[in-house]
Structure formats: C-alpha cells, structure tokens
Description:
Layout: H1 3-21, E1 23-29, H2 31-41, E2 47-51, E3 60-65, E4 79-84, H3 93-102, E5 110-116, E6 119-124, H4 129-135, E7 138-139, E8 142-143, E9 145-149, E10 161-168, H5 173-181, H6 185-193, E11 197-199, E12 202-203, E13 216-219, E14 223-233, E15 239-246
Antiparallel strand pairs: 1-3, 2-3, 4-6, 4-9, 5-6, 7-8, 10-15, 11-12, 11-13, 13-14, 14-15
Amino acid sequence: MDQIDLLIAHMEDISHKAVKTGSAASRFLTPAEAQSVSDYFTHKRIAVSFDGGFNGAERVRAVFLNPDWGECDRAELFTTLEIKFRPQDILTHRDILGALMALGIERDTTGDIVCKDGRAVLVCLPELGGYIAENFTKAGRVGVTVAEIGLSELPTKQEDLIIKTDTVASLRLDAVLCAAFGLSRTKASTLISAGSVNLDHKQCLQSAKEVDEGALLSVRGLGRAKLLEIGGMSRKGRIFVQFGLYGG
Length: 248
C-alpha cells in the first residue's frame, strides 16, 4: 500500500467518524494530499471541505460533515498564535518552523506560517496551542513571545509573485514550462519524463498535457509558477501568456 492509499484509508476512517458524530477533521494536509482527498471524495455522500485558517492557505485540514447534522464551528478547528520578536531580528518561515520542530512539534499539526514586520502568525491544532505558547521562547538565538489571537485577526496572505509575460507555440506542458522557467524543449521534456514536474500538485508525466489558466506548475529544483493569464494570438500565431513566479 503506497502513501496515497494510506492517506485515503485514514481519511475514510475520519469520514466514518463524521457520519457518527456530525463532523470530524484531519490534521493539516499538503496541497498534493488535499488534492488527492478532494478527488477521491468528489462523488461520495459525505461532504468534505478544506480549511487552513488563512484565506488561500496552502496547508489545510480536511473537514468532513454529515449533512444531516449541520455545520462545523471553524473556531474549533484551529488555535491561532502570534509570535513577536524585535523588528531588527529577522526571522523567516524556515526559522519559525525549525524552532517548532525542535520542540517536537510534528509538521502536520501546524498550518501555514506568515512572517512580517517583527511578528509571525501561525495556526495549529487546538490541543497544541497551550504547549507552543508556553515552550516556544526562542527561534535560534532570537527571543520570542507567543500569545493566542482570534481567528479573525489572521492577516491576509500575499502571494510573492514575480510577473513574467511571454508567448508559447501551444499550451502543452513542455511548451509552457519552457516559457515559465526559461528551459529548452528538450530539458523540459526530460524533467517531465523524470517525474520532476507537478501540475496542480500532482505529478504529470505527459509532455503533451494541456495547461489551463490558473494552473500551478512546480519543478523540482527550479521552483513554482502559476499560469495567471492566457491571452490572444500574436501575428505569428503564438499565444500570449502571463506567469506569476514564486519568489523565495
């Protein structure tokens, strides 16, 4: 049984619990895991939604609802923590995450982390909020203070995108990769064949797969890009496209 099968089996267990109790939720899922769960439960009777606390969150909890029981209270899904430090002390997502892992916190018990202007904000499973608030006092050599805040106080996540425009001969995956990452057609095809390319969080091995507007592309070792817009045709019959390249 592979990792996806194990994940789905676990989600089945959670969905059965929701049928009996009204609602139940997973731990935090990666985008790829969430996509697999969404695909599997599309035609199932049990309702599933995804919530990461933040609008546009990458890491989300799968929330299963028995439609005969009503709705789930979002406030019961998350504890929201604000981590403060001096503005002159620069802490990154990696610094905060590393400090949490050093406390023995498992990655799937915390969601997205946003760092900006002398503070970081994160969401976690409710049962871990008190432990983190009490024990998280340093990230490396930087002292921090932690306090719980309301879910409504979460900042809006801003995508750090570098805009790039280009033209492509077609919307085939290999052609789109060439334009987004500045690759040769041969290099793009090789990366796809090697399993290094994900399209909308799923590995794609088909160079001829057509890419839709809004699709997320990720290439191992090169980064991520979003196909923001598909425009009209140039005089030479090429298609105008606009990408958002993720910084950092």
